[in-house]
Structure formats: C-alpha cells, structure tokens
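Q: Predict the bound structure with cobalt (II) ion.
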Amino acid sequence: MKIEHLGIAVKSLETSDDLFARLLGKGNYKKESVEREGVTTSFYELGESKIELLEATNPESPIAKFLDKRGEGIHHIAFGVENIYTEIERLKKAGFIFISEEPKDGADNKLIVFLHPKSTNGILIELCQEKNAV
Ligand SMILES: CC[C@H](C(=O)O)C(=O)SCCNC(=O)CCNC(=O)[C@H](O)C(C)(C)COP(=O)(O)OP(=O)(O)OC[C@H]1O[C@@H](n2cnc3c(N)ncnc32)[C@H](O)[C@@H]1OP(=O)(O)O
Ligand SMILES: [Co+2]
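A: Predicted complex:
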C-alpha cells in the first residue's frame, strides 16, 4: 500500500492549476471529468504519489458540499492497493465502514472505493487500484 494521491478540493481548476504549476514547477499531466462523482480532476505527479485537484461540476457534488462546509483544502487521502477486493475484506474485518463496498470507476484508470470518515478518525480515505491489474 502507498499514498497514491492527495485529493484537494478547489473552487476553480483554472486558478488552482496555475498555483500548483508555480508551486511544483511543472504542469498537470491529465485533466479528467468523472460525471458520476460530479468532479473534474487535474493530476500532478509528485514522486511515487500524485496531487489530484478536484473541482465540482454540479451543486450536488461531494466537492461542492465540502467547499460549502469547509472551503478549499485537503479533501481525501487515496491509498494505492494491489487488490481492492482483498483490501475491502481486510478492512471490513478490521472494523472499518465503507460508503459503498462496490468498487467503481475512478479517474486516472483506477477502480475506487471510499471509507466513511466517521470510521477513520475524520479523514476521508479512498482505496484505488489500477484497472488493468484485475
Ligand atoms: C473521480 C474520482 C476521484 C478519484 O480519485 O478517482 C475522486 O477522488 S472523487 C472525490 C469525490 N467523491 C467523494 O468524495 C465520494 C465519497 N464521499 C462521499 O460519499 C461523501 O462526501 C461523504 C459520505 C463523505 C459525506 O457526504 P454527506 O452527504 O454525508 O456530507 P456531510 O457534509 O453531511 O458529511 C457528513 C459527515 O462527514 C464529514 N465529511 C464530509 N466530507 C468529508 C471529508 N472529505 N473529510 C472528512 N470528513 C468529511 C462531514 O464533516 C460530516 O461530519 P459531521 O461530524 O457530521 O459534521
Ligand atoms: Co481521489
């Protein structure tokens, strides 16, 4: 398991892409919308991990609700795992609660699930696995 990405909620990708390009000294490598999640993402490589900027595409988006409640900032930590199904079972046995136990298509060619922050010390944790690894 590794930190695959840090998810950061932003109001405007245009503004934040400029800020992160200046901060990291390089541009994003991908911009991708995932309508099911109500987000447009913008990815930056950072060694073994990535930064995923997230802009809401509609007011019902989890990102829109997060921004309304907490403003811009770190939204979630994504763990990269070898086998998402094995990890779901392991974590369920260890007492963690999933928002949905069924992996879904995420951005950047991943399968993803989320644990509920109430079972993870108030931190939204995402598990993600390369899609072509299954
Ligand atoms: C495109 C996919 C991409 C990828 O990597 O591939 C992504 O990462 S998509 C990211 C956006 N999608 C999600 O976040 C999906 C999972 N999130 C959810 O299902 C909801 O956001 C949920 C269930 C965490 C909260 O939704 P709810 O409608 O219950 O909102 P509330 O504001 O009522 O929150 C309830 C409770 O949870 C706390 N909360 C909400 N968001 C976060 C967060 N990001 N980190 C920590 N805690 C969070 C919120 O403060 C409430 O706590 P309370 O003590 O009741 O105030
Ligand atoms: Co993510």
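A: The chain has one domain: 2-130.
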